[in-house]
Amino acid sequence: MKRTPQDCPSRLPENTAVKQQQLPACRLQLSATGILSGFFATGVFCLGMGVILILSAKSSMEIEINYTKICASCAKLRENARNFDKECTCSIPFHLTQTMRGNVYMYYKLYGFYQNLHGYLLSRSNSQLLGTDVKDVETCAPFSKSHDGTPIAPCGAIANSLFNDTIILSYKLNSSVHIQVPMLRSGITWWTDKYIKFRNPSSSNLSSAFAGTTKPPSWPKPVYELDENDPGNNGFLNDDFIVWMRTAAFPTFKKLYRRLSRTQHFIEGLPAGNYSFNVSYTGMEKLKSSL
Amino acid sequence: MALSVDSSWHRWQWRVRDGLPQSPSEATPLLSPEKGRQTYNLTQQRVVFPNNSVFHQDWENVSRRYSSNRICTTKYTLFTFLPQNLFEQFHRWANLYFLFLVILNWVPSMEVFHREITMLPLAIVLFIIMVKDGVEDLKRHRFDGKINRSKIQIYERKEQSYVQKCWKDVRVGDFIQMQCNEIIPADILLLFSSDPSGICHLETANLDGETNLKQRRVVKGFSQQEIQFEPERFHNTIVCEKPNNHLNKFKGYMEHPDQTRTGFGSESLLLRGCTIRNTEVAVGIVIYAGHETKAMLNNSGPRYKRSKIERRMNINIFFCIGLLFLMCLIGAIGHGLWNGTFREHPPFDVPDADGSFVPLALGGFYMFLTMIILLQVLIPVSLYVSIELVKLGQVWFLHNDLDLYDEETDLAIQCRALNITEDLGQIQYIFSDKTGTLTENKMVFRRCTIMGSEYSHQENAKRLETPKELDSDNEEWTQYRCLTVPARWAHGPATMRSQRGAQPLRRCHSARVPIQGHSRQRSMGRCESSLSPVAFSSSIEKDVTPDKNLLSKVQDAALWLETLSDTTPAKSSVSTTSSIADFFLALTICNSVMVSTTTEPRQRVTEPPSTKALGLSLEKIQQLFQRLKLSSLSQSFSSTAPSDADLGESLPNIPVSDSDERDDTSVCSGDYSTDGGYRSSTWDQGDILRSGSATSLEEVLEAPALGLASPELCYEAESPDEAALVHAAHAYSFTLVSRTPEQVTVRLPQGTCLTFDVLCTLGFDSIRKRMSVVVRHPLTREIVVYTKGADSVIMDLLEDPACMTDTDVEKKVRKIRARTQKHLDLYARDGLRTLCIAKKVVSEEDFRRWASIRCEAEASLDNRDELLMKVAEHLENQLTLLGATGIEDRLQEGVPDTIAALREAGIQLWVLTGDKQETAVNIAYSCRLLDQTDTVYSINTESQETCESILNCALEEVKQFHEVRKPDHKLFGFRLPSQTPPPTSGAAVPDIGLVIDGKTLNAIFQGKLEEKFLELTQYCRSVLCCRSTPLQKSMVVKLVRDKLSVMTLSIGDGANDVSMIQAADIGIGISGQEGMQAVMSSDFAISHFRHLKKLLLVHGHWCYSRLARMVVYYFYKNVCYVNLLFWYQFFCGFSGSTMIDYWQMIFFNLFFTSLPPLVFGILDKDISAETLLALPELYKRGQNSECYNMFTFWISMMDAFYQSLICFFIPYLTYKDSDIDVFTFGTPINTISLATILLHQAMEMKTWTIIHGLVLIGSFLLYFVVSLVYNAACVTCNSPTNPYWVMEGQLADPTFYLVCFLTPVVALLPRYFILSLQGTYGKSLISKAQKIDRLPMDKRDLKIQSWRSRQRPAPVPGEAQPTHHPEPPVSEQGFRASTPKSSRPSKRKYKENWVVHGERCSRDHMRDDPCSGDSSAKLSSGEHLLLGPGRTMASGVYSSGQTDAYRPSNRGSHRRSQSSLTI
């Protein structure tokens, strides 16, 4: 008798490993030997990583200077809204006992500034910043349009609250000679931000590109005057602006402000000695160097 | 006559009801008063006018009101689809919740996510379900269309002929002409059949799955018709009941132009969906069409049951909602407080669009709602979808289990309810039917008693004891058959399906391919012929080995029968020889068995041979012939049924002019030709013989007594008992050759064929518990009533011996009766089903009178059934007892084993049966439901007081047992003992069984004794409810389910189990031989009871543990992930910010973490199937809900909180004070939580297959791929926040890797620790079993054995027996005097019998019909209670410990109880 399956069409389930739930399987059983070996292996790995991390952290150096109290008078001045365009500077001296070697970065650090607040976070227009449509201020409420209905560029709460203290670090070569420490304002942003996410509207002239828009209410000057010296750093492409627009995750945060241009005296980094920096406007600042 | 008065009164009443409101009301506008017709109340009746020229006007008026035959099973139309579907979908609260969130998100001040994006998940879910519904509906629509467009012949008034039209054009009142094998388009009243006797054969497989043919007969008065039915000459109006869904209930009458009425019932109704068979042409008038047909009305959608896990899940979801509320409240208050810390608005506090700031309190409130949106995932809505999918997978695996497949019927398990698979793992109580469930429902004739002498059929018993050989025979045969089965049977149902399609007859998938028509012939020639799917004819049932002693007597009797003349009076009825002949004639005739041949499976032998052959000696036959010729002149009997109008008077002397030939030859010889010639000559009913061309007739002639066995004859019986009896008679050469409604032909041992005219058949019903056939004896011309029925009923209906004139006869009758009763008790004790056979000779006049009453009763519309029953009672009395039969119903294979395993698994098994107590108890012993050492309490009482006191006594006593044994049980309430395994130390204390009957149950339910009853049953090992009605069965199930709040399972196979199956949490139907009703109402359908073991112990356990753990995991997963967002709120001023991009959040739930739980829920095996089967105790895990209860839920919640804390704060501490931005911070957190959640899943998985691995790793990789692509794809995608290049940036950062490694390790450490502690030192059953599972095969077996022996250190010898005893041991003598174990002195045994013994039999019957006047006296006498000795015993037993002082109670007591009392 020949038996072929098609002769016997039936509901007989197929005898396959999958259908009979007989797939070869390995049983996971956590036992003492398994857990101990796993535990120690992980532990050793973590320990090694920890040692490396601690060593690397030791080699970096950080100085933090809080200037809010020192520049309290400026703060007071700024409290009065009418004085917003008045220049106020204060100078803070500090002493560097040890040379900061390598690349030195200058950050500003804000305490209790909730850049991650929900409403704040959303109040921006990416398409405007991308330069495609300067007048696209739809998502920027309440800083989308000025009282007369002109769209704001850059719109939104984030842009409006741009950190605009100017900090100039000067190095006292000796008691009389003060050299301004050369700082680079480029290269402090993500590459993708600077070259992809932020574009100025295409136009021959930057100010004409922003024609028909107005500056954010808190800004002293329009966006196309942020850095009139360097067209690559002007408008939406301004590095400080881009850095600010990348909203911080926590209320206490620091943002990269400048990096040391390693020329002349500062080829090796920031030499030890006395420094001072001048701050115009208020805020908190912190200086940090790292390798 | 009292009855005629009764029935005429009923008729009058009915006329008053319908006839009197003659005023033409608005409800009957169709009436044209000038026609002078009767008023019809259309609100209570359906009136059908035929669609012919005469009634055309009326037809148009009326039929407009009835629905047409176009069916539309679709839910939606093109226009209503969208709104209706949405409306239905929003009935689910989960969707409503989502909708609420979406709307909330549209409020500007609460917008958390992009408005459009928030709608997306909901829209996707709605869309998917909408598409699913739409496709299903489209399919339905297509099938509807197909069905609606099927063709059928409809009578067209204008053309005066039948025209082919579509089904949808069929209207009520139309005449339909159907050919053989056509499917009936509507409910049609049969008016004409090409069959001369007015029979139409139907196959109802589409309706109920039963494959045997049903007969429908033409309405009375229409059976004698010319070749063609003339619709134009049909001048009657049809009045019948409104459409209802009772398939087997239908009544109505037909009003003739002369105002006379003809009644008809369901036997004339052709139901939609059935198939015409064996009938060339049938014509009928449409009564119900379209959605009003019974088939359509019967079609209710699938039921929805909520499983226990789902119920618990819903509770936990409420916890989650509470948690959500709490978290939102924290968010709201936190936001308020945070806002309050600022004296003025800081620059980052963004005002509204109009520049104003929200007040503090309002801001808090907004924040509350915002947080709900933010944390919405806490309510695991995706869980519902996942559960559905997992259950689908589980069901798929169930379907594919080879062990649950039955080769014989070619059926795998059917899951009809898709959403309660996990309940299979939590069953605590099983309620089982007995017949067909525990037993095979293959009725085998075992022994009989005739006129007081017992024939024990030893050889038959021996044959039955060796079932294995036969089975193996069958098996081979089946396999062989399977190969040779041509496409007909295999494809038959399939084509049927495609035709019927979604036409929701519910039956489609259960139309089985029957391969049980076993025939033992093995030759090639035969196999083709034995393909017939005949029920109840397995070889074990067919072959009865005759008792030698009886065989010789039967031959004598047959000879006597041959020589019988019409002069022999009723006196002979006492003689043994005639009784034997009568007995076997009764077995052959008194049934509704259909005869068919196997060559053409669906061809019935309905026509009695017109010229009967099989000659004996020529002289003898001629002699008979002569005699008959003479007698037939004076008394004729018509082969056609008299029309109802003249039935009354025409019976005795119908002038038969044209039927002379037929009459003459009703017994005659035929075979004059030589052996080669009979086929062509006389035996023109050749299909009997033609089929079996291989059968030699010589053989038949030569050895008529041995194997007259024309194997081509197949008997199709409605109940297996009937088939068994016919087969038994066949073994003694009384062969049922053919049957029509009017005639039955029996072949006697000598080969003569006797044709009996059937004057009336009183069918079997469960109330009367008997059936009768009234025939005219062809030889004696007497009218004989053969009755067969339950012994309890028949014994009451016997003629009173006291009335007998002759004292000798009286004595003899009494003696016979007593002995028969003794034998009956014996049979019952042996677990046999007993039937009594009786006969009665009726005088012509009595019968004529009776027939007229019956005719009247048949025509009545109301109370028809009642009336018919009463009429039947008038005939079925004063019977003469012929004998009784014992039919064995064998235990199914593997039943004791299964029961033992289920019990070990902690499941309580109750048997609820309609059978006799003795039979039930016997089956219970043989299937090890009761043990020989058990104490069995039997409670048989009818009075509530007695019942209460009995229950009290029993309870007291049982409690004493248990208190002595282990008092701590009482601490936990009474439920505990039932759930804990019997203590090993207390082996001296026997287990308790409870046997209770239907009447007692009634008393319990009426007397509010449920609590006590349940309390008693808590202590019982098993409970048997005998003699219980279907309603009682379901009441018991509901009682246990609701009062004890346990998970219940009902299993049964017959229509009487339907209510019980529906009442239980899980209903299991056994697709056996008794039709498909049980299967249709069940959640799961299996083919054998033994499958229950694997279904529950393995699949139940798996399904439960998989799903339970998946649910817990889901809760964990969602809480863990959502909490990350919650923790972030503490750092963003509770403003509702998220650090994770919304798309990535959606993807996280949708793609990255959805598949592993699904795979886990479908595939994970915590313990292997072998171990689960070997150690049934493991099932208790599910019963106690160990995988998913409050404890595990909260533990996993805590774990989720811990893990989310770790997952958030380690990255937080890492990136604190840095220049990290929001989304760059979110990415490692997302990655970490993904790793943690997947690894957590990995630790939960107990078995790792390649699928597990692929899915887990795949999910993880998918996350990276999708994130990378998404973060690189577009700059302004998710404006204004967008995570452009974040992932890429992170991947370039070593910190990211470090954090992603460290955090999951820390997060999973506690669970890892605990799991490994459990794995190493775990003492729970599960962890032990898991350890066993890891051992190699041989070691595993050893370990399992040692485990089992540890579980039961001192096995009772009885229990140590191998559990494979499919059959109760049958001793040679037939009955055991006492069981050997019971005589062991070491066993203390108590046997109490509270048997209140009234006139059981009579009460049984009378109770069913309390209004019958003459029975009221008996009824009251039945109430007289005879309290057995047990009551006084109860206290005495315990104090003295000796029971021999108490005598066995009485007749009704059980043999084991008797034996036990002698200790």
From TrEMBL, chain A:
TM spans (from-to): 35-55
Alphabetical UniProt keywords: Glycoprotein, Membrane, Transmembrane, Transmembrane helix
Matches recorded under InterPro entries: CDC50/LEM3_fam (IPR005045)
Subcellular localization, as worded in the UniProt entry: Membrane
Family listed: Belongs to the CDC50/LEM3 family.
PANTHER family: CELL CYCLE CONTROL PROTEIN 50 (PTHR10926), CELL CYCLE CONTROL PROTEIN 50C (PTHR10926:SF1)
Protein name: Cell cycle control protein
Higher taxonomy: Eukaryota, Metazoa, Chordata, Craniata, Vertebrata
UniProtKB/TrEMBL annotation, chain B:
Entry coiled-coil feature ranges: none
One Pfam family from the record: PhoLip_ATPase_C
Start-end of Basic and acidic residues biased regions: 1391-1410
Domain P-type ATPase N-terminal: 60-118
Membrane topology: Multi-pass membrane protein
InterPro entries: ATPase_P-typ_cyto_dom_N, ATPase_P-typ_P_site, ATPase_P-typ_TM_dom_sf, ATPase_P-typ_transduc_dom_A_sf, HAD-like_sf, HAD_sf, P-type_ATPase_IV, P-type_ATPase_N
Reactions that this protein is recorded to catalyse: ATP + H2O + phospholipidSide 1 = ADP + phosphate + phospholipidSide 2
Enzyme Commission code(s) on record: 7.6.2.1
Gene3D superfamilies per the UniProt record, alphabetical: Calcium-transporting ATPase, cytoplasmic domain N, Calcium-transporting ATPase, cytoplasmic transduction domain A, Calcium-transporting ATPase, transmembrane domain, HAD superfamily/HAD-like
CDD domains: P-type_ATPase_APLT_Dnf-like (cd02073)
Region (Disordered): 640-673, 1346-1463
Transmembrane regions listed in the UniProt entry: 90-107, 113-131, 315-338, 358-385, 1111-1130, 1142-1163, 1191-1214, 1220-1239, 1251-1273, 1295-1314
Keywords: ATP-binding, Magnesium, Membrane, Metal-binding, Nucleotide-binding, Translocase, Transmembrane, Transmembrane helix
Required co-factors: Mg(2+)
Protein's recorded name: Phospholipid-transporting ATPase
Organism expressing this protein natively: Equus przewalskii
